[in-house]
């Protein structure tokens, strides 16, 4: 297992982290993300399905 760390943005800035996946055989996928401030406080997030 590889440890993953969140690096905070500079003070007064926000950071967007997002990811997604796709299964070519079913053409199903999804994506999601989160915006956080320099303290790591959740500002807004999203998640959605993708169908090609």
UniProtKB/TrEMBL annotation:
GO molecular function, one term: RNA-DNA hybrid ribonuclease activity
Record-annotated membrane-spanning stretches: none
Signal peptide region: none
InterPro entries in alphabetical order: RNase_H-like (IPR053151), RNaseH_domain (IPR002156)
Residue span, RNase H type-1 domain: 17-49
PANTHER family xrefs: OS05G0353850 PROTEIN, REVERSE TRANSCRIPTASE-LIKE PROTEIN
Protein name: RNase H type-1 domain-containing protein
Organism: Solanum tuberosum (Potato)
